[in-house]
Every structure is written in structure tokens, then in C-alpha cells.
Design a protein that fits this description.
single chain; 679 residues; alpha+beta; eight-stranded mixed sheet; 36 strands; 33% strand; globular
């Protein structure tokens, strides 16, 4: 007998649906959504600078492009002003040490690359304050005295190579001729006096840096090469003396590394990192002695994930901790003991910044994307409302539920109910499977171009996001359960989710589909082939179809070995083949839409070609379509590609999942675009 259990609130799903009155969220609404991005707090805590942005609203005629943001400076709830001209997108926001300027990266009309600009807080126009000699600035920081700006910049140009390219000699030598980034310091005023920024020698390929409170050293994230595999397996933090450029210490954490922050006295660094080389994700909080590089873990083995941290003025450390699908703000004493915790209720905390006694977080919730909140002893006060129009949108009920898998493992996930409720007999259900699998879905804002969420709910679907085995926020032991078991227990969890939701009365057993990207795309391909009898439709994005050829075409072979397969393909060719969806195409009766970015280096587009061709030849009666996105990589960046993807995904489910008709004709090759005339 299949066993499941569910929270008391989920039992309300058994009510009969009421007619939807409805102003549901639509695919077109995606381009109205704004969210708060990076944040900086002034040294006296009186002001908060932040980005608010999204993709261009191509529905209303804005030019196609990627993420764009506006700089805002706030002083209280709903009290903020824009300090820059409309349409001027910026990044990497910082306050000067005296709080009089907000600096940022921007590419001006006369710039060939991004430079450092600043705008005065108390009135006046923005101006360029620093630039690298011959490449774009990637990140910047102020010296404590406010007289110097440190910059991380791209590689220097190569005039000889540029001339060769113009003559047609543009061959690419794969994984060779690495272009290393450089670090510079520039005194304020040097720009006006035509003084070049001064180079600082740095080890390897630098990914990030921060300057100590006294300006004597920098914490530099560095790896041997720019290759993403090195980012996952070989990136380490170095303590670099800024006067001599000598490396004082190396923090020899054994696995993946994440956020690093320096304490107010400069003696300690917090570091979120893995506990060993086989830890799938950097989720454990560590304290590091900046003099020696010695480190110790604070929450190793706990069923949680540290995601961001920030030192407070009193020397305590505040950390965002995700516990399953929820989150909390934990404050540690300087010695690493826990001082206290803040429960944010329905909020999912994403980032934290603090200065001058002011602590701010960005957080989302089931009803809204990321907004800015100030943290006080009394709780979390919302400062921004970037999408007031959402108050008039009918959203489906959203909650966290748990079920017990066939081997007794408890699995948690996020359920979005159809707008209007669950119909008798169950709703068509979409399993939205996250990638990684070293990631997790939280009970916050769930809707995006690839995540059907509230858009699907408005069309009558239930949507479930399972935190299947391999997910983070449940402890390292849980995130390691998928290792050396491709397509085993991890994807059995998806079938068990379906069965549990059917048993609860949420899902119609004949109308359950799967979608996801990357590892979620692998889950979709597996569900549409090996598990085809269980699933009525699939939408696969940048997914895996052949574990043998995937190894030979990916840019993360060592990461795959360390935290996923735990063996090389040649150690067991047959096992790798057995775990490949192409092997099981003979069972494929699930209509599957396959989509992929043409420039994807993580999961080669050839993975999608292989699955598409295998189905077309071996199972020609099974509906299949392959859609490629030129210029896009491991995920769609530009607005038009995101809109197209969302329309195609939902139309595929409308055609095959909502109807339950696996043999329905293919929809038209081109979806209907609801674009307004821009003229």
C-alpha cells in the first residue's frame, strides 16, 4: 500500500472547485514583473541603495534584451527616489565610506567598456570616477579612506590577435589561451589627470574580491583557469596583502565555495562552503582566521543550507538559513555560538546587507517576487512594492506539503493549487523539477519563464515543485543521496510525488506532466521515456539524454564525477547507458517538447538532438518537437526567448496534458505572440 502524509492545510484541497472569476497571471504579465536585486546600506544606516528591474516589456514594444535595472535610494517604507536618468541600467552598487556617494558600474555613451561611476546622494549629476586601462570593469570596492577605488577588470586586449581576426584567422583553441582577469587600484582624481590605474598582481583567474576594513588586505576568490569546472572544484579564497601583493594565507576548504565576508575587526572571515569534495553544494557556514587561513564549520550536518551572510557592527554574524522550503535569519556570536534567530513567517529570505545598525534583506513570498525589507527586533518591515498591480491578480493557493517515498524517505515540495480550487477527480498536474539537483525550491515566488507556477494555476493546472533527493536545504546527507545512482531513487521520488498527490485528490492520475531545465530537463527526458506510462506530457529544457556523450561534451566533467556520478563512464559503460533516456526511447509514448539554447556549454545542444532523433526514428507515432534558441546558453537570457519559451511550454501542456490526449496533432510551429504595435 502506498503511504503518504500531508499537512493539515493541504487536506483543504479536497474541496470542490469554485468558478474562477478571474484575472489570472498570464505569460504576457511576466514582462511587467519587477524585483529588487542587489542592495547596499549607507555607513550610517540612514539610506539603502538598491536595484529594481526585470526584462524589457517586449509586449508593449520595448526593445528585446536582457536584465535591466534602475538605481533607487530609499530612506523608509515606500520612500525612495531614482537618482539616474530613466533607462540607465547599472550594477555592483556601493556606498562610499563617508556615505556621500553611491558608486556603480555602467557603460556610458563614450565608453568602450563598463567603468565605475558615482552619483552624489545629496544632489548633483553622476560622473565617471575610475576605469581600467583597456577592459571592462567587473567589480569594484572603495578603500576605507574613500580615496582609492579597487577594480576587477577583464583581460587586456591583444592588438595582434585582433588584426589576425579581421583577416579571418579566428580559430578557437578549446580550453587554451585563457584570458585572465586583472586587478587595479585608482586614486580618485587620477581620471581627471589622465593617470592610468595601477595594476595589482593577483593569483590565477580571479572571480571576486573584497577589501578589509583597514585596507591592508583583500580576500580574493581565485582559481587556476576560467573554466567553470575549476569554479566548482578548484576555486579557493586567498588573503592578499594589498601593499606587497603577497598571498598571506590560502583558505584550503575542500569543496565548492560561496559567499565570503570580512568581520568589522578584520580578524575573521565568514565563508559558505562545502564540507568535502563530494559535497554537492556550498551550504555550510564556516569561520576563517584571516591571519592563518584556518577554518571551522558552524552548522555542518544540519538539515539546512546557509545561503548568505553579513557581519553586523557589533561583531556578530547574521546568516540566511534555508530549512527545507522555508527560511530564517540566524545571528551568531563572534565565537560561533548561536545568539538568536528571526522567523520571517511566509517570507523567503534571499540576501542580506547591513551597516550603521541597519539590517536589510531581500525576500519573496507566495504572493510577490523579491522586495526589500528592513529587519528590526520587532520583525520585518517591507520597504518596497515593485508590483502593486499583483494585488488585482487571482493567484492559486500555495503551500508546502510532504509525502513519504516508497523506501520511507520523506520528501517535501511546493504545491500551487489551480485558481478556483481542485476539481472533483483531480486537476491536471505539472511537476516542475528544479535543476542541479543541488538546489531547492522554496515556498516563495515560484513563477518565471520556465516555471509555470501561477500562470499555469490560472489555466486550471496544479503545479508541484518536488525537492527530490539531491536537493539542498535538507542537509548534506540528503543532497548526497542521489550520488552514484543516476535516474534511480531521485526520479522514483517524482513518481511517488504523483501517486501521493493522486491519493490526496489533488491530481488526475491520467493527466500528470513533467517539466524542468538542466537536471530537471534530465528528469523530464527520463519521465517521458523510461517512465512514460506514468506521465502524459513533458517539456524538456537544456536537458540530458545520453550520460556517455554528455560527459564528452560538457564543461563540468570533474564536477559531474565529484558530486553526481562518483565514477567515470569507462568504469561502467553499461550503467551510464542504462541511465540515459535514449536507451529507453522504445517505451516513449509521452509527447515531449524539447527546447535548448544553441550556445549551451554546460549541456550541449547535441543532447537534445540525440533524444529528438531517437524518438523520430524509433517512435515516429510519439509527438515530439525540437526548438533551438540562437544566442542563448544554459537558460534563456533575453526577453523574446523567454516569452517564446513560456508560450510554447504552456501550449504543449494545453494540447497534451490538459486534454489527456497523447495522440493529439502537433500544435502550430509558431505560438501566437500578443505583441502591441510599437509604432
Amino acid at each position: 500500500m502506498f503511504k503518504s502524509f500531508v499537512s493539515a492545510s493541504a487536506l483543504s484541497a479536497l474541496t470542490i472547485a469554485t468558478p474562477a472569476l478571474a484575472d489570472p497571471l498570464t505569460s504576457e504579465d511576466l514582462f511587467r514583473i519587477k524585483s529588487v536585486g542587489s542592495v547596499a546600506v549607507s555607513p550610517d544606516g540612514s539610506r539603502v541603495a538598491y536595484q529594481v528591474g526585470g526584462r524589457p516589456n517586449i509586449i508593449e514594444g520595448e526593445e528585446n534584451g536582457g536584465y535591466e535595472s534602475q538605481l533607487m535610494i530609499g530612506t523608509g517604507p515606500n520612500q525612495a527616489a531614482s537618482y539616474l536618468p530613466e533607462g540607465m541600467s547599472v550594477s555592483d552598487i556601493k556606498f562610499s565610506p563617508d556615505g556621500r556617494w553611491v558608486s556603480f558600474l555602467h557603460k556610458g555613451e563614450d565608453d568602450e567598456e563598463r567603468s565605475v561611476y558615482a552619483v552624489p546622494v545629496y544632489g548633483g549629476s553622476y560622473r565617471k570616477v575610475a576605469q581600467s586601462p583597456d577592459a571592462g570593469v567587473i567589480a569594484h570596492a572603495w578603500s576605507p579612506d574613500g580615496q582609492t577605488i579597487y577594480m576587477l577588470a577583464g583581460a587586456a586586449g591583444d592588438d595582434a590577435r585582433d588584426k589576425e581576426k579581421k583577416k579571418g584567422f579566428d580559430a578557437i583553441v578549446y580550453e587554451e589561451e585563457a584570458q585572465l582577469r586583472r586587478m587595479f587600484r585608482s586614486r580618485l582624481g587620477d581620471l581627471d589627470n589622465d593617470v592610468d590605474a595601477t595594476a595589482i598582481a593577483i593569483p590565477g583567474y580571479v572571480t571576486e574580491f573584497s577589501v578589509s576594513p583597514d585596507g591592508s588586505y583583500a580576500v580574493v576568490g581565485s582559481q587556476p583557469t576560467p573554466q567553470i569546472d575549476d569554479t566548482y572544484t578548484s576555486k579557493r579564497f586567498h588573503i592578499v596583502d594589498l601593499a606587497s601583493a603577497d598571498v598571506r594565507a590560502v583558505v584550503e576548504t575542500p569543496g565548492k565555495v560561496g559567499d565570503a565576508e570580512i568581520s568589522p575587526d578584520g580578524r575573521t572571515m565568514s565563508l559558505i562552503a562545502g564540507v568535502d569534495m563530494n559535497d554537492p553544494a556550498a551550504t555550510t557556514l564556516h569561520l576563517v582566521d584571516t591571519a592563518t587561513g584556518e577554518f571551522r564549520a558552524l552548522n555542518a550536518g544540519a538539515a539546512e543550507a546557509a545561503t548568505d551572510a553579513e557581519w553586523l557592527d557589533d561583531g556578530k554574524l547574521a546568516a540566511i538559513i534555508h530549512v527545507g522550503a522555508q527560511s530564517l535569519l540566524r545571528v551568531y556570536n563572534a565565537d560561533g555560538s548561536v545568539d538568536h534567530q528571526h522567523d520571517p513567517g511566509a517570507l523567503i529570505l534571499r540576501s542580506i546587507e547591513a551597516d550603521g545598525g541597519t539590517v536589510t534583506v531581500t525576500a519573496d513570498a507566495p504572493s510577490h517576487p523579491a522586495e526589500l525589507f528592513r529587519v528590526t527586533p520587532d520583525g520585518f518591515t517591507r520597504w518596497t512594492d515593485s508590483n502593486p498591480w499583483l494585488a488585482n491578480i487571482d493567484l492559486g493557493k500555495q503551500e508546502t506539503i510532504k509525502y513519504t517515498a516508497r523506501d520511507g524517505q520523506v520528501i517535501e515540495g511546493i504545491l500551487v493549487h489551480p485558481v478556483g480550487g481542485i476539481p472533483e477527480g483531480g486537476a491536471p498536474l505539472i511537476l516542475d523539477v528544479h535543476g542541479g539537483p543541488e538546489a531547492h525550491d522554496s515556498n516563495g515566488w515560484t513563477t518565471n519563464y520556465g516555471g509555470p507556477g501561477h500562470i499555469a494555476a490560472g489555466k486550471g493546472y496544479a503545479v508541484f515543485q518536488p525537492n527530490y533527493r539531491g536537493s539542498t536545504a535538507y542537509g548534506t546527507a540528503f543532497s548526497k543521496q542521489h550520488q552514484n545512482d543516476y535516474a534511480g531513487k531521485e526520479f522514483n521520488d517524482l513518481v511517488d510525488a504523483k501517486r501521493a498527490l493522486v491519493e490526496m485528490g489533488v491530481a488526475d492520475p491520467d493527466r500528470v506532466g513533467v517539466t524542468g531545465g538542466s537536471y530537471g530537463g534530465y528528469a523530464t527526458a527520463w519521465s517521458s521515456t523510461a517512465l512514460s506510462e506514468e506521465f502524459a506530457a513533458g517539456v524538456m529544457f537544456v536537458g540530458i539524454s545520453n550520460q556517455i556523450s554528455k560527459f564528452g561534451t560538457t564543461d563540468i566533467p570533474y564536477e559531474m564525477y565529484n558530486v553526481h556520478s562518483r565514477k567515470w563512464p569507462w568504469e561502467d559503460w553499461q550503467a551510464m547507458l542504462d541511465a540515459s533516456p535514449i536507451t529507453h526511447v522504445g517505451k516513449a509514448e509521452t509527447p515531449i517538447l524539447i527546447m535548448h539554447g544553441e550556445e549551451d556549454t554546460r549541456v550541449s545542444p547535441s543532447q537534445s538532438y540525440e533524444l529528438y532523433r531517437s524518438i523520430k526514428v524509433r517512435k515516429p507515432e510519439t509527438p515530439v518537437r525540437l526548438v533551438l534558441y540562437p544566442g542563448e546558453g544554459h537558460g534563456n537570457s533575453k526577453a523574446a526567448a523567454r516569452y517564446d519559451y513560456n508560450l510554447r511550454m504552456l501550449r504543449w501542456f494545453d494540447t497534451y496534458l490538459k486534454t489527456g490526449d497523447r495522440k493529439a496533432p502537433l500544435p502550430d510551429p509558431r505560438p501566437e505572440l500578443k505583441l502591441q504595435d510599437s509604432e
